[in-house]
Amino acid sequence: MDADTTPALKPPDGIEPNFVNPPTLMPAVIGTATTALVISTSFVALRVFVKLRICRGHNPEDWLSYIAWVGLMSYTGIQIYIENYGFARHQWDVSVTQFEHILYTIHVLYCIYPATTLAAKMSVLFQIKGIFATAAHNIVYWVVIISMGANILFYTGLLFTYVFQCWPREAIWNSNVHGRCINAVSLNLAAGILNLISDLEAFLLPVWAIWHLRMPIKRKLAAYAVFGIGSIACIIGIFGIYLRVLVIRYSDFTWLCTKTTMLVVSEIAIVIIVGCTPCLSSLYHYLRRGSRATTSSEANNLRPYPNPYYSHFSHPSSQIGESMGSVSTKKYSPISNPLAKYMVPGGILSMATLGSGLGVDKEGLDIGNHDVYTYHRDSAGADSR
Question: 6 in a domain, yes or no?
Fold first, then answer.
């Protein structure tokens, strides 16, 4: 048998293998990759600008987002290479020699996927924690912490499972080497299901948290819009599970798995974009004020806050659970807590006040009026506005 001329899969009746000019999914691959990279890169670039120009500092979620973006670039570059090599074809239009090289390269993609996805999702979870659970260890805080631990365990375990899918490892891509292997197709289906659960959790958690805030419905809807794009990742995850089921049912691995990898690229890009979306609020206010936040007088006002992205640090009013008195009306520079600006001016009180019985002036809920806030609480613990 000549491995260079023998198809990797027996073609259906009436179809001849075509190694010269076969049907291909390359146009769809290029279109998906280009769209995902252009949009995600644009959002990451905006995030870098906000962090360097407006917030003047980086947080763990920022570095995780950058790592995820590098992983996405690597994944997409390797994907385009192997698709052009023959992966975007029907498997009967691929020779045995080509198929072994495809399996090796797909194994590399499998190993990149868990680390990249983990970084992207941890970035979003850190962001949710910083926005919704900054002042106290409330329910949101513990749900996020548990979610972080679960994601770390899942994706780390998935990485090791992919790395040691077969022993010896060469049996993963070399049909002449016999070894003990895990069914990669079933493993991918399980990974897709757990990944969808993770996407749903990351989407529903901020929705649940925002719903319990004391604020007008219009402000809630505006806040939902920040994380609403995460619903697209959930939809992509559902389609990904469907394609993984088809891979189990049908033998045309290269054609069906190509569609799956396109969804993976889209999903990772969406998660990265979700993590960058809250920065748009900071950018909006920065542009609206004509860079006024960078003047020397306002820069002096920013100094008490070592981390301007989340403005709950170093201010007495951030220790919400420790004060039963009243905080007088004061003016602070607009701090770039991206989502808390929908809740209170400058994000000083933070959205960690879920269920804490705090009151905020109605003006404080106006996204365009975020310099002044007032909080009152009488001696009996009742709220007044």
Answer: no
